[in-house]
Each structure stands twice: as structure tokens, then as C-alpha cells.
Amino acid sequence: MILRCSALLMLLMLLPVSAQAVVFRASIDESVWEMETSRFFCRLSQAVPAFGRAVFEHEAGERLRFELRPTQKYQLDGEARLIARASPWQPGVAPVNLGRVEISTESGGFSLGSELANAMLVALHKGMTPTFASDEWFDTNEPVEVGISAANFQSAYDDYLGCLTTLLPVNYRQVARTAVLFPSAAWRLSDATRERLGLIALYVKTDDSVKSIYVDGHSDNYGRRLLNRDLSKKRAEEVTRYLVSQGIPEDMITTRYHGERYPVVPNTSAENRARNRRVAIRLERE
User: Fold this and answer.
1) Rounded distance between C-alpha atoms, residue 241 and residue 187, angstroms
2) In the 8-state DSSP scheme, what is residue 174?
3) How far is it, in rounded angstroms, from Cα 88 to Cα 30?
4) Cα separation, 252 vs 286, whole angstroms
5) pLDDT value for 76
6) Residue 148 has what DSSP assignment?
7) Which residues pair with 244 in a beta bridge?
8) pLDDT value, residue 207
9) Regions of the chain where pLDDT drops below 50
10) How are strands ordered across the β-sheet holding 79-85?
11) What SS3 class is residue 284?
């Protein structure tokens, strides 16, 4: 009996939506939404039987993205249409065209930005089935559709919304290399610099893989070299003091100062000199 049911489910999955299309979509019983949560990302995904996995991911400091990850390459090629179709329990509901997507030649799937990803979530919230339709399956003349089932979506979506409230405001890429700038002859921290350093400190205190912080002070070449070196020292030490005040262990931080020796651009204009009056903060993971 179980074998007959499994065979029937597979047959139903492959039944055409139109006269010829092959369809991959989880049945109501197969529709399982999985949540992975942390302060660094919220990931909501569903297995598409016999095809692959559909993944919504919202990384800290970034916008929502969607990926379709096929188990086998070359199932899809070229371009696909994204359509919100009525689910089996929505007779009479008209489909909605959401857009077109380019299929990756490397993965055979695709990654969508926040606009289409959010449109898919809206469709799922309404109980509809976001569906990717392509004219060729495995380089054949068979049309194919890959649907994301809305069954059991609502409770998972509630968990996803809860996860969003716990995300950090930044991710590692956004804070791993930071430069804060200073006015000429100044070393005190501006409000904007304090805010940026506060984000760095918050991230470091959350990510246990960050083991070291390097703080390097610099100056432009205006004035005497020894005075510039002393100025870069004051800037670096001011940044280090603030990070420590935000709860970063002092032994994590290596503070250095270089004066005018390492400009990022030639000191040939006021704009360039402003870029060279900086403290660079670098995070290193284990």
C-alpha cells in the first residue's frame, strides 16, 4: 500500500500542468519548510522532490535573496518565467506573472534579488505557488515547471519574521575592513566614527571566530613628519580606547601607527589628503 501511494505521488508530481509540461512540486504532505536561524542569517527553505531545493536567505546587513538549487545541472537552461499560480485549494484564482529570471550556466539554478524574492514571499503568504516555467527540460522539447508549495508556509513564515528581529545590523564582510577618517590635525572621534566603531564592536562580541583586531593609524603628508607620526598614534589609540570601552578585550587589539608612510592615494590634493588621514581597522578570524 505504501509503495502504491509513493508511486501515485510521483506520478502526480510529473503530471503536466498544460498538455506537455513536466512539473516538480511538493505535494501537501511533502511540503516541509525548514528554518535555520542565527544572529548572522535567517534561512527558510523547502525541498522540491526530484529536483532540488528552494532557499530564501536574509543575511545580516543585506537584503533578502532567493536561490533555486537543482540537484542536477542542465535541467534548466536560458530563461525562465516566474509565475504565481493558484494552489490546489484555490480554484478560480488567476495566475500572476512576477517576472523573468536568467538561469546560471554554472549551477543550473539561479539567484534572485530582493524584489522578486519578496514578491515570492507575498505570493506564498497568499497561499499561491511561485512557479518557474522553462521551455526546455534537459535540452529536450519538454516544457518544465518547478513550483514552491505554499502548504504549511504560514507557521514557518512567522518564525522567519521572528528571526529577522534578532539579526545583527552588519555582517563580517561589511566590518572586516574599515577605515575611519579624521579632519586635519585632529584625532578626536566624530559621532559618525563612534557609531561605526560601535557596530564593529557589536559584531566582534557576537562572532566568536574573530580572534584579532588590527588598528593602524595614518596621516597625510602636511606638516612635519614626526608630528604626523605622533598624530597617527593619537588617532589609533583613540580608536582602540573606544573599542575597549565598548567591551572588546584589549588583548585582542594590536595598535600601530605609521604617520605618512602608507598613503592610500597620492597626497596631491585636499581630497586625497582627507582620504589618507585615517585609521584602518582589520578583523581577523581564526
Assistant:
1) 12
2) H
3) 14
4) 12
5) 84
6) -
7) none
8) 98
9) 1-19
10) 22-24, 144-147, 129-134, 79-85, 96-102
11) strand
- The cell for 161 is 519574521
E-strand stretches of the chain: 22-24, 33-37, 41-48, 52-59, 65-70, 79-85, 96-102, 110-112, 129-134, 144-147, 177-181, 210-217, 253-257, 278-285
User: Rounded to 10 degrees, what is the CA torsion of 69, 71, 75, 78?
Assistant: 20
Q: How far is CA 130 from CA 87, 98, 199, 222, in A?
A: 9, 9, 37, 60
CA distances from 154 to 66, 124, 190 (A): 18, 8, 45
pTM of the model: 0.85
Torsion sign across C-alpha atoms 178, 182, 187, 190: negative
Cell triple for 139: 535540452
* Direct distance between the N- and C-terminal alpha carbons of the chain, in angstroms, rounded to an integer: 54
Which CA distances in Å does 15 have to 4, 9, 10, 21, 143?
A: 16, 10, 9, 8, 12
| Cα(208)–Cα(221) distance, integer angstroms | 38
SS3 40: coil
Cα-Cα-Cα-Cα torsion 270, 273, 279, 281, nearest 10 degrees, comes to 100
SS3 content of the chain, % helix, strand, coil (to 5): 30, 30, 40
Q: Each residue of 77-98: pLDDT tens digit?
A: 789 999 999 999 999 999 999 9
Question: Which three-class secondary structure state does DSSP give residue 171?
Answer: coil
- For every residue of 46-84, DSSP letters joined together read EEETTTEEEEEEEETTS--EEEEEESSTTSS-SEEEEEE
Q: Are 127 and 89 in contact (CB under 8 A)?
A: yes
